[in-house]
Amino acid sequence: MVLVTSVRDYINRMLQDISGMKVLILDSETVSNVSIVYSQSELLQKEVFLVEMIDSISVSKESMSHLKAVYFIRPTSENIQKLRYQLANPRFGEYHLFFSNLLKDTQIHILADSDEQEVVQQVQEYYADFVAGDPYHFTLNMASNHLYMIPAVVDPSGLQRFSDRVVDGIAAVFLALKRRPVIRYQRTSDTAKRIAQETAKLMYQHESALFDFRRTESSPLLLVIDRRDDPVTPLLNQWTYQAMVHELIGLQDNKVDLKAIGSLSKDQQVEVVLSSEQDAFFKSNMYENFGDIGMNIKRMVDDFQQVAKSNQNIQTVEDMARFVDNYPEYKKMQGNVSKHVTLVTEMSKLVEARKLMMVSQTEQDLACNGGQGAAYEAVTDLLSNESVSDIDRLRLVMLYALRYEKENPVQLMQLFNKLASRSPKYKPGLVQFLLKQAGMEKRTGDLFGNRDLLNIARNMARGLKGVENVYTQHQPLLFQTIESITRGRLRDVDYPFVGDHFQQGRPQEVVIFMVGGTTYEESRSVALQNATNSGIRFILGGSAVLNSKRFLKDLEEAQRISRSGSHMV
Amino acid sequence: MATRNRTLLFRKYRNSLRSVRAPLSSSSSLTGTRSGVGPVIEMASTSLMNPNRSYAPVSTDDPGNSSKGAITVGLPPAWVDVSEEISVNIQRARTKMTELGKAHAKALMPSFGDGKEDQHNIESLTQEITFLLKKSEKQLQRLSAAGPSEDSNVRKNVQRSLATDLQLLSMELRKKQSTYLKRLRQQKEDGVDLEMNLSRNRYRPEEDDFGDMLNEHQMSKIKKSEEVSVEREKEIQQVVESVNDLAQIMKDLSALVIDQGTIVDRIDYNIENVATTVEDGLKQLQKAERTQRHGGMVKCASVLVILCFIMLLLLILKEIFL
């Protein structure tokens, strides 16, 4: 609730003190921040009758001085330039400027200089600089997410930009929560270390006064970790509703774009919204697995058919009156039912076409169970299978390589060759690049449960007991990290504190930021953990929300840049 | 949630830069009053929409500055008056609805009088409210704008917001009416039952005067049930009428009102759509312009006009030479 509520509160405060007809002006990033928590009808209630992007606002020359302009933008240099021009030629009666992060004094100076007409009424910093998709999950929607994999020497300015954006986002989250945390980071990741140190500098030195909040008995914890410590989770195919939609179709800002599927009939919805805040069915089913969802949807359809039948059976005048009264509810229910049915149908079709049941079983085995020989056989078989798509083949080989990196290098080589011969679009060396980035030496955590004695024992016990559902047996590494934090046993060696920070006992609030992006499987772990009311509240955030396509794209981009970088050197 | 106000710093910079820019002008006093004028006007305006009528003082100092007075007169466009009228009507309807609620409650209370006066009051109030709603709905249609422009988006959004208010009001009215009728019916039934019981009780001890008494009681019972059925018919008629009226309003409004929770209710979807419709509109306009220019109609018309002139000329020549 916490993240969504804070962004909504910011927007409410922005709009409520300004009376009269307003126009809301956003930039390409804040439009996601706002759209995901605030609906158009709510804006209309607050008398905001026009919403525009800062890029297109200067195109038209109409003067609309009966409107008051409310700007909500990020304080980037491009936005400041655009704003300069718009202030010098104002179109609206009043200008109220809200920035989603910290302004530099020079920027304020520039704006003051261009405000010759003195139309600006207020300049505020409202720190809603993150996309709050779910109550405990946020993202920064960064386009150049791949920069975290590139060492500083190759592209120092790119890495600096990446780091700045992440630090801004994390700072905004803590300002919205009104907390100042103790910071820890993953030792093996340079990017995580850099981000952790810069965040500490911002919160404790540069803007120390701003972050000086009322101290609670135990400081919250900010843990900065690297995606590369767990490359397995984004590669796996998912079977719980929200994660599955993102993996198979794609979920952006809680919207699903069905255009890409292409097999829809004319009158069906092309874009749908999947938001746990607005859709009760989705809220209760977003973490359920595919089989259970099917049953729940069938139940929903049956209920709806009952209602529809009773609506058709209009005999008395009272029935008529009741129908007219309940019509809006009925229409809403109909829209919701058709949305979920469409989604599940499309996903079933994709599962069938790509033979994902078969592929996913092998994937889960690779991720969770042992047996190199059997694994090799299974992967080879699937590589030879014609109906398996290229991306699935690539994922299988990657998972195998991550698991059995050191065992039997000959067979590994054979798999690489087979992959290259089978998949024409496969860029050679991608799997090796992945191993270089996220191989055994680079990882801190016990990804496969075969380092720590306790984990080995646990795995054996699980193998003996058998699993409930073969397809959802994987637990992301994040789950183990959360467990360690809950028990107060997060190792200092692996996750050191920044500077001279120290924390006694367990924190009550933890924000985990994953550099490189989170997945919906991990946000599900966090949500389920929070539901157990263990006394610690976890919030998860990342630079993007990954599915296997996005993760592979980031890898390819990083590989391309590394190659060209090494050529230049 | 933390915020930080940078307005003071901004104003400080602005003032210092202003004095640097125009050190000799007396604009500082004028701009000082200007910020005072704004809020006063806002407080004076009591309309629901409360548009910002900011009348900036005409600058009497350097003519160089006044050239930038693009926002000196901030009068809103004409359609804002229509929307203001609609919101005033909605407000009136709301107050009448509370009155109606009170009248309903009064009519339902047991009274000694006939209750016809209360009925009349209720009927007139209901009619007034329905009339207001219908009028507002017609005016709402007038707000629809032609052509894609920023102003038309504002109009569309104002229309949507008013349509939502109207729809809520009409649904409220429906609910109030139906609960009132239900309670009324219940009361009548109780009343009739009570009377039936009373008549039955009276009937018992007078069993011996069978013949006449029976006929009389039967006749009165028949008459009573007739009255009841006539009243019920009238009520049903009323219900049907109001269902019709309001169903019509709701049908028209549902085209305008946004379905909450769907993609249409997303801000980013609306921005993208606006962009594409504006582009499409522009393309269509350009196409229309092109076809019009090269249109056959224009050529035909010009040819005909030329012919007319030639004929006229021939006629005149004929007159001259004959």
From TrEMBL, chain A:
Signal peptide: none annotated. It holds the Pfam family Sec1. InterPro entries: Sec-1-like_dom1, Sec-1-like_dom3a, Sec1-like, Sec1-like_dom2, Sec1-like_sf. Belongs to the STXBP/unc-18/SEC1 family. This is Vacuolar protein sorting-associated protein 45 homolog.
From TrEMBL, chain B:
Keywords: Coiled coil, Golgi apparatus, Membrane, Protein transport, Transmembrane, Transmembrane helix, Transport. The chain crosses the membrane at residues 296-317. Gene3D superfamilies: 1.20.58.70. It is a single-pass type IV membrane protein. InterPro entries: SNARE, Syntaxin, Syntaxin/epimorphin_CS, Syntaxin_N, T_SNARE_dom. Residues 226-288 form the T-SNARE coiled-coil homology domain. Belongs to the syntaxin family. This is Syntaxin-41. It comes from Camelina sativa.
